[in-house]
Design a protein that fits this description.
By secondary structure, this protein is mainly alpha-helical. Helix content is about 50%, strand content about 5%. A hairpin with a 2-residue loop joins strand 1 and strand 2 (about 120-125). The longest helix has 26 residues, at about 125-150. It is flat and about 50 Å long.
Length: about 190
């Protein structure tokens, strides 16, 4: 069985799942909360988004032919909070994810073993995807945590609600065993308002 087509499909679903978590977390905040940070050593959600955007554009633009750390990338500038509106933050968010997802969708299974470079270090395409499947959720987790701390009204849970495990597991175990990706149901949930 060739696992490469399912790897690409699984990777895309994982990325979409984490994008959705970030979407739903940011949607719960007032616009000004996207720019709050605790001190000069912490990043606001806007800065985290800007960093993800810069990384995604650099890593996934012309991924098969150029190094993933582009000469035009200004990584240090990604950590300067120079965005001022929710719209600017969400535009960067969408542009970064669009670049990543377009690249993932463009790969053919046989390209997964091709060597690409990030800062002159060779990775297979599969390794590069896996690397970012660790990096991007790390930052989405920061976004969710910061959003949860900033939310002044009750938090709309993005996963199993507190004290809801028994009900959730009961519903899962009431269904017959099946093989499917865990994000299939998650990605069908209502999009943020």
């Amino acid at each position: 069985m060739d696992l490469n087509p399912s790897f690409l499909e699984t990777a895309e679903k994982q990325f979409l799942y984490y994008k959705q978590l970030g979407d739903k977390a940011m949607a719960q905040l007032e616009p000004e909360q996207l720019f709050q940070s605790w001190n000069e050593d912490t990043n606001s959600i806007a800065v985290i988004v800007k960093h993800l955007w810069g990384n995604m554009l650099s890593r996934w633009t012309d991924v098969l032919t150029t190094d993933g750390e582009k000469a035009w990338r200004e990584r240090d500038a990604e950590f300067i909070n120079d965005l001022s509106t929710r719209e600017e933050v969400l535009d960067k968010w969408e542009e970064g994810w669009s670049c990543l997802l377009s690249a993932i969708r463009s790969f053919t299974p046989d390209q997964l073993s091709h060597i690409i470079y990030i800062r002159n270090e060779g990775h297979t395409v599969m390794e590069a995807i896996t690397r970012q499947l660790a990096h991007y959720p790390y930052h989405v987790g920061q976004i969710v945590y910061v959003a949860k701390m900033l939310k002044e009204t009750s938090w709309d849970s993005l996963s199993i609600p507190r004290n809801g495990s028994t009900l959730y597991n009961g519903e899962k175990f009431a269904k017959p065993k099946m093989t499917k990706h865990f994000t299939d149901e998650e990605l069908k949930r209502e999009e943020p308002k």
